[in-house]
Amino acid sequence: MRHIISIQLFNYGRRQRRTLSKKDLNIKIDELESSLGTIKGLEIQIGRITDEEWEEPMGPTPFPSVGTFRDWDKKLLNRYKPFYMPLCDLCCLCTYGKCDLTGDKKGACGIDQKAQQSRIVLLACCIGASTHTAHARHMLNHLLEEFGRDYLLDVALNTNVEAPHIRLVCGYKPKTIGDLEEALDYVETQLVQLTAAAHTGQEGDNLDFESKAFHAGMLDHVAMEIADISQISTLGFPKGVSEAPLAQMGFGSIDTKKAVVMCIGHNVLPSVDIIDYLMEHDLFDKVEIGGLCCTAHDNTRYDNRAKILGPISWQLRYVRSGIPDLVVIDEQCIRLDIVEEAEKIGAPVIATSEKSMMGLPDRTHDDPDAIVADLVSGRQKGVVILEPRKVGEVVVKTAMAVSPKRKEFKEPSKEKLFENMEKCRGCLECVMACPNNLPIMDAVKACAEGDLSLLSELQPLCVGCGRCESACPEDLSIISYMYAASADQCKDECFQVRVGSGAITDVEIREVGRGIVFGEIPGILALVGCANYPKGGGEVAKIAEEFLKRRFIVLATGCSAMDLATTLDEEGQNLYEQYPGVFDAGGLVNVGSCVSNSHITGATIKIANIFAKRPLRANYEEIADYVYNRVGAVGIAWGAMSQKAASIAAGCWRLGIPVIVGPHGSKYRRNLLGRKDKEEDWITLDARTGDDMYIGPVPEHLFYAAETIEEAIVMTAKLSMRPNDTTKGRAVKLSHYIDLSKKYYGTMPDDLELFVRGESDLPFTMKVELLEYLKKKGWEEGKIGMPDPTLLDRMIRRKK
Amino acid sequence: MSAKLRPGQTAEIAGPKHAMVFPKPTVVASMIKRAKRPLLVIGSKAPEIVTDDGDLIDYAIKIGKKGKLTIAATGHLIGEFKKRKAKNVYSIPFMNLGDRLRDTDWNGFDGKGHYDLVIFAGSQYYMEWLVLSGLKNFAPNLRTISLGNLYQPNASWAIGTVNHSEWMSILKEIIENLEEKK
Ligand code: SF4
Ligand code: SF4
Ligand code: SF4
């Protein structure tokens, strides 16, 4: 009797070590002889359909659990040790407390300050990752209902690797939108485990907390990928740069003669219905749809007649302008006083997500015309409508009916906007409350005396948080003053933004992979994140321009992608107009909204897989090892503010991609810093021989808050170096590092000797000067090795 | 609460352990004089801080020279010091500096040993707040002074929240009381 039975067991975690849930089971019986007869080719599947068409064998870590990559994380965390800076010395998370954790004190549960800080980092990453996951869930459930499980994934032109994160982390290849559910189930399950680790009396070691934060980050990129590839595939978004047209942004892009709808948030579904309704009823010439934050990006990806009003920080400014006739909120980064603010300008609010109902009555199941009547009459200041397919009709009808009634609000007089400013009592409360300590008091006082210039200068520096107003004992409307002082100029502002192009195509990866890995393209710079800038959004454009000129590939998403558009050259052109929108040296690509960040990390994964042919399937450590050692990618989140920015960054850290944040980013309360002065920290393995080798401090840091943009720019050039750079590549990178140091620091770098491996690394034109410098520093040729670098023992090909 | 103990940003209240305010500028000068290995950290806002005869960088150079202090210039500030031909100035990112100061094995920029007193001025308020928090919690033996004009609760000692002219006269008095060290 012959029994040939193969059983494949998959679980959300390390295989073989977990109990099975029914959805994990797949039993394949090739041939079985029994008393009942012979059974051939029987396959019993419960749950997921195994991927028979993907020839690549399963890698070592499908559906990794919380501790699967602990060793990998600790390799990184050993090199980049956390420097904690508590934002609060106390803990008040449970009723044992409050506990004072200052210095070497411990809480009633036994936790110490380091563990507490890393616990907060983990919580931030869990909140961030959960937010994208919840977004992805809402999106996917809706799309499955509307398009069906079998709707084919079609993410980017000429692209085979449609979902690098899912392939890498989960180990399967999704073909339809229905296939995405499995990965999403997995992410949700893991996030619950991670959140549980933050409970009192659970995890106690700071590095284990950090490793869990990395895990949350990795999961976040899977969730973002699911959200974005499902909407790209079904909603007709651009599938690559060649399909991305220009859209308009700014106050001046809005035709205020039309009824104006302002959508705030990150989930495009309600806006899609509004746009569909406008198209079906031919109403685009009567209604403007403008968006703030990521919904704005995704609206333009759906239809570039939609307008981008601006980044998250412009919410209050837009409302105070009186322009919107109706406000639609979906999810994330919405001002929580939006209903109160909108009420002041007579604009109803429609909330469209269960996550953000703002105390409004749920009218999802009511007749649309009855809802419209209540909103137009003012009987209700806002409503909740959770069915996206009902939102369009109510929004458009309400906006059109409300608009003519709002004339007095639409163009508020300067007198009205400047009301009460003479009451300023010079108490400085506003300045003390302002995150950037802007000189608000002086500006208000000057304005009261007729000089508007100071207030108008503050406008681009203001992050729109409203803390000054809330602190003011006279309840002065400082943001309205700032708007009024620069309204004439604001109203004309109209910028061109390239629409988010989504995933980087396989063809593009093939074309640039070599240049990036060998360092001939000096790096990939991703400008991502929110608008919590220390000195306004113009800084993002300055950073981008510096690296575009130096032929880096510059990618942007979210609010940063918007802010890039607002700086114009002498001919009135912004960077989108000056530089080609291509994923190649010197190209500037708007990838899209927050969830499109997954395509940036996805591109680095695809470089390892498509260009270097490294196996992708459930092979996270090897791919991360490759990206870390070879792909000179650097992320800058100059205005990072949210928990989502934390989890996005954490997903980069686990892949070995350094992230720089602006000064406010120091409030994430820890940096991950390398010590270039400690040679022992920079020993790596040579995969050819297994020998240990000193490689110099490349990349020097993993998470780093810069004080000024000049510092960020020089650090970006430095962090783009990798141990694998060819001599030609290193010479290019060094020449940028030296040049930028001279430009912004007014001097040569003081650590060049740590990055020059041999004379051939030296930029040819500076060779004599540099050799002189290196001689003084006691530099030795060949001290820094050029291995085939790896941190993984298993990558060593010939062990001694 | 005395006005001097009011933090420079409304919500920046740390915890039970917070900085003492100097009773008078001469105490700052004598603490610096008594220190064996003092370090002066100057942040990127220094060029924007106008004094009677220049800016905070000029004051920093004077303090450094008179008190024989090593200066750490954070951000991209080193160029300014070089332009003014200042000696004994090192460039280091603010975060790196905090990280090294909490490491008792770090032997300083010149390799001659750890610093025993670190004095901060000219940094972005909230960044200095955080670096000082890192040091308060993880470098218990390091004494820190904030010379800024907004109270820094995480330092060991601070000038406290004072207006610009009061601040300038305090800084001048400190400089006057730092006789040239040999
Ligand atoms: S979680 Fe621990 S440190 Fe925090 S309040 Fe409870 S007992 Fe105290
Ligand atoms: S709204 Fe602007 S001016 Fe007011 S506190 Fe916030 S950043 Fe400062
Ligand atoms: S808080 Fe209000 S009253 Fe006080 S200075 Fe600022 S604007 Fe004037």
Distance between the termini of chain B: 41 Å
Number of beta-strand segments of chain A: 24
Rounded to the nearest angstrom, the radius of gyration of chain A is: 27 Å
Number of domains of chain B: 1
Q: Can you list the ligands bound to this structure?
A: iron/sulfur cluster
Sheet of most strands of chain B:
7 strands, parallel
CATH level 1 name of chain B:
Alpha Beta
What is the helix/strand order of chain B? EHEEEHEHEHEHEEH
Short key terms for the protein model shown above:
heterodimer; A: 800 residues; alpha/beta; Substrate Binding Domain Of Dnak, Chain:A, Domain 2; Rossmann fold; eight-stranded mixed sheet; globular; B: 182 residues; seven-stranded parallel sheet; two-stranded antiparallel ribbon; 6 helices; binds iron/sulfur cluster
SSE arrangement:
The complex is a heterodimer of chains A (800) and B (182).
Chain A: E1 3-9, E2 25-34, E3 37-45, H1 70-79, E4 81-84, E5 90-91, E6 99-100, H2 113-147, H3 164-170, H4 180-197, H5 206-235, E7 246-249, E8 259-264, H6 269-280, E9 287-292, H7 294-302, E10 307-310, H8 315-321, E11 326-329, H9 338-344, E12 349-351, H10 368-377, E13 382-384, H11 388-402, H12 407-410, H13 414-417, H14 429-433, H15 440-448, H16 453-458, H17 467-471, H18 478-491, E14 495-498, H19 506-517, E15 524-527, H20 538-549, E16 553-557, H21 558-563, H22 575-578, E17 588-592, H23 597-611, H24 620-630, E18 633-637, H25 643-654, E19 659-661, E20 670-673, E21 683-686, E22 692-694, E23 701-705, H26 709-719, H27 727-745, H28 767-776, E24 789-790
Parallel strand pairs in A: 8-9, 8-11, 9-10, 11-12, 12-13, 15-16, 15-18, 16-17, 18-19, 19-23
Antiparallel strand pairs in A: 1-2, 2-3, 4-20, 5-6, 7-14, 20-23, 21-22, 21-24
Helix pairs in contact in A: 1-5, 2-4, 2-5, 2-25, 4-5, 5-23, 5-25, 6-11, 8-18, 10-11, 19-23, 23-24, 26-27
Chain B: E1 20-21, H1 25-34, E2 38-42, E3 50-51, E4 54-55, H2 56-66, E5 70-73, H3 78-83, E6 89-91, H4 94-101, E7 117-121, H5 125-138, E8 143-146, E9 157-158, H6 164-177
One iron/sulfur cluster (SF4) binds next to loops of chain A.
